[in-house]
Amino acid sequence: MEDFLIIQLAVVGFFLYINCLMIFTFLKKEAFRTDTRYILFSQTLFPDSGLIFLGNLALVLVYYQVAIYFVFCCLLSVIMSLFSIVSPLALVAMCLERYVAICMPLRHADISTPRTRNMGLLIMWLIGSVIPTYILFVSLLSMPSKMLLAYVVCSVDVLFVESWQNLLRSTLFQMYFLVMFGIILFTYVKIMKAARAASSENKKSTNKGLRTVLLHAFQLLLSLLRFICPYVESSLLHIDMLLYLKVRYSNFMLFIIAPRCLSPLIYGLRDEKFSVVLRNYVFFGHYTFVSNLGMNGRPE
Questions:
Q1: Assigned domain for 292 exists
Q2: Is residue 296 one of the residues assigned to a domain?
Q3: Which entry of 3, 118, 247, 259 is 20 to 30 Å from 34 by CA?
Q4: d(CA 130, CA 73)
Q5: In whole angstroms, what is the distance from residue 178 CA to residue 176 CA?
Q6: What is the average pLDDT across 27-56?
Q7: Do the Cβ atoms of 277 and 244 come closer than 8 Å?
């Protein structure tokens, strides 16, 4: 199992480095900070990076059976739940933004304004806060006060006294992801129709938007499959402990880490403007390019 842990730490470290570079690129360039498309992209980068780091920390604590205060475990689980919901919601918002840009180009400028963008971000975070708030109240209200300072090996399962509480949490998660998957499917169908009707000049941009939406649907599908994992893991727990641990680590990498690592590849590296500026920062300003983002072959 040590080998699994080393591979996991290496993969997590690599993608955290990539995400930090992209966050730095977003924050340094004003053109990105004022564009709805890139602002929504940042709403996946920040929570994804936080979830990768905290999820990896929680897994290491469980692996080494390190006990922490119950109240700290509660806060850790709440923050991870918030990040795990907000990032897919941002993906849905990105798909809707592409839908408006491609299918309603004349209305895009009127819809994508700073006011509507800020309202959308507020609504997105409020929706994302429903399940974490439920976890916080259920865990704190159902536990005796003396348990708050008790030491536990942190897992979301220890936060719930009754089985129905955890079941309700899982059901809410599944409803969230099914609704989000349905919205992304809707945008894909609409953009596909627009791609068929588009002229040769607009077809390239439309097809690129279509591929982006499809990749986001794949991300959400991986996240949705995560909710099958506890049932598979619980059945293996009574058969072979070593196999159970291996499957649990594999599920963590496939259904928690992998979807969060796809966003930089989908938007950050495939987007021409963003990738050009990113490469310039990676090579410490020695990557020369021609771009309308800045003058003298360098970004502003």
A1: no
A2: no
A3: 259
A4: 19
A5: 6
A6: 86
A7: no
| 192-232 tens-digit pLDDT | 887 777 666 566 667 777 777 777 778 777 777 776 666 66
Least confident of 4-13, 29-38, 95-104, 290-299: 290-299
Answer for the pair 112, 36: CB distance below 8 angstroms, yes or no.
yes
What's the one-letter identity of residue 212?
T
Fill in the amino acid letter for 206. T
Q: Kindly state the helix (H) or strand (E) to which residue 66 belongs, with its residue range.
A: none
Q: From start to end of the chain, where are the E strands?
A: 67-69, 151-153
Give SS3 for 69: strand
Q: What is the CATH number of the domain that holds 112?
A: 1.20.1070.10
Tokens of 227: 């909710």
Domain span at 79: 2-282
In angstroms, the CA 247 to CA 6 distance is: 16
Count of domains observed in the chain: 1
For residue 286, give the amino acid letter: H
Q: Hey, what are 166's tokens?
A: 């955890």
21, part of any domain: yes
